[in-house]
Amino acid sequence: MAPREGDPKSGTISNIKLTAYKKFPTNYPHTTFEQWLSGKRIDDDVGPYWRVHNKLYDLTEFIDKHPGGRTWLQVTKGTDITEAFESAHISERPEGLLQKYFVKDITTPRNSPYTFHENGFYKTLKRKVRPILKKTGKGPSWKSVLIQDGLALAFVLLTFASTVSSSYTLAVFAGIALTLMTICAHNYFHQRDNWRMYYFDLSLLPSHEWRVTHALSHHLYTNTANDIEISSLEPFWEFLPKPDKIFIQRYAGYIYELAIMATLYLIATLQRMYDIWAGKTPLRPEYFLVFFELLLMAVISPSFWMALKLFLIIHVTFSIVFLNIGMTAAHHHPDIFHDGDRMRDNPDWGLCQLDAVRERIEMTGNLFLVLISFGDHTLHHLLPTVDHSRLHDLYPAFLETCKEFNIPFSFMTWPSLVAGKYMQMARTTTNNNHPGYKPKAS
Q1: Secondary structure string (H, E, C) spanning the chain
Q2: Which PROSITE patterns did the record assign (predicted)?
């Protein structure tokens, strides 16, 4: 459902009275990472620079020196990176380093509504976790590495076994192993460049694109019109509370979505191949990994057609399982903030993340479950560059910060989030009271 024309100044598009942005995102609904980036450059309007809060910086000479890898700075040139800078850097050192590349102050208000006040929730949380991470480190623990590499090995062995035996059943299990391995690998592409993030590319999901669509869009502007994980799913999954949703969109998702889930990433891969051929998308080496996987299967399979069928079974299984986990993990329920709902009066970025995320009680406390199901999701959104294996150690500081700011924190069950997904798709009215962690009346 394409948004109807409206008045950009009033923020009313497709009957949504936006509360999140001063200007409705250009190119909405976004379907590709290039489209999202080009729209953000237009909306942020900072020329050839990078904006952090109300200052402009020229980081061109720093791109090759950036400890996290050059990609983060390459793709964000010409945009406001305030949320990315704050959430990626926990220590104070990057703030000092940034001054070397200062260009000028800027008086134009940020399009983003979020704040990062020194005495606010998010900055306070970062100060509390610094000494903890200084002791433990923020990178992968040996347990995290063992689980990630173990899942990769399981995927390879199951794929090999299914191919030599021409077993469709084993191909399904290989697809499940691929799903768990890929979800785990998502932990690694949030971090500085490392070879394990390329496990993600063994699926039909390129890590380079997901660093934009997931890490830079979804993580920073969760459940808003600027979250491409919302807009790219339209019109089949309409999660924003639009009053003009049709009956099928509201109530028939559980009927048609399985077929869409099965083919969504295959179609996206074909589209990417066409865009590369047409010169719209640059060819990257890691794009070949999934096709190399098919090539190896063809070499050891009795026939190419059998290898192709097994390959498709693996990746269709992956698509179905991955999307089912991803869309019910943390973000969709009528009690969770979606663009159009009333935002809290204090738009601290950390507090707004709490409003857009819920935690599943079943996943907490077990690192394996956390890594394979987007677990410890609240802390992951608040501190995305911290390895999942370190998040459990940060709960005391997080809960202490919640108590200091009178923010009750509670868990949901996974079944309630599964049901909540369909309830949210049916919702057409906005929440007049912000749906965050509201203090209880005394």
Answers
A1: CCCCCCECCCCEECCEECCCCCCCCCCCCCCCHHHHHHHHHHHHCCCCCEEECCEEECCHHHHHHCCCCHHHHHHHCCCECHHHHHHHCCCCHHHHHHHHHEEEECCCCCCCCCECCCCCHHHHHHHHHHHHHHHHCCCCCHHHHHHHHHHHHHHHHHHHHHHHHCCHHHHHHHHHHHHHHHHHHHHHHCCCCCHHHHHHHHCCCCHHHHHHHHHHHHCCCCCCCCCHHHHCCCCCCCCCCCCCCCHHHHHCHHHHHHHHHHHHHHHHHHHHHHHHHCCCCCCCHHHHHHHHHHHHHHHHCCCHHHHHHHHHHHHHHHHHHHHHHHCCCCCCCCCCCCECECCCCCCEHHHHHHHHCCEECCCCCCHHHHHHCCCCHHHHHHCCCCCHHHHHHHHHHHHHHHHHCCCCCCEECHHHHHHHHHHHHHCCCCCCCCCCCCCCCC
A2: CYTOCHROME_B5_1, CYTOCHROME_B5_2
Q: What residue spans define the domains of the chain?
A: 12-124, 142-206+252-326
Nearest to 176 by CA among 328, 315, 375: 315
Check: CB of residue 228 under 8 Å from CB of residue 217: yes
Residue 372 pLDDT exceeds 50: yes
| pLDDT higher than 70, residue 193 | yes
How many other CB atoms are found less than 10 A from the CB of residue 315?
A: 25
Going by C-beta distance under 8 Å and a sequence separation of 6 or more, which residues neighbour residue 362?
A: 369, 413, 414
**Among residues of the chain, what percentage have pLDDT more than 90?**
83
Name the pLDDT band for 102 (thresholds 50, 70, 90). very high
* pLDDT the model gives residue 253: 87
| Residue 317 predicted with pLDDT over 90 | yes
Q: For residue 160, what pLDDT is reported?
A: 98
pLDDT of residue 24: 85
pLDDT of residue 7: 39
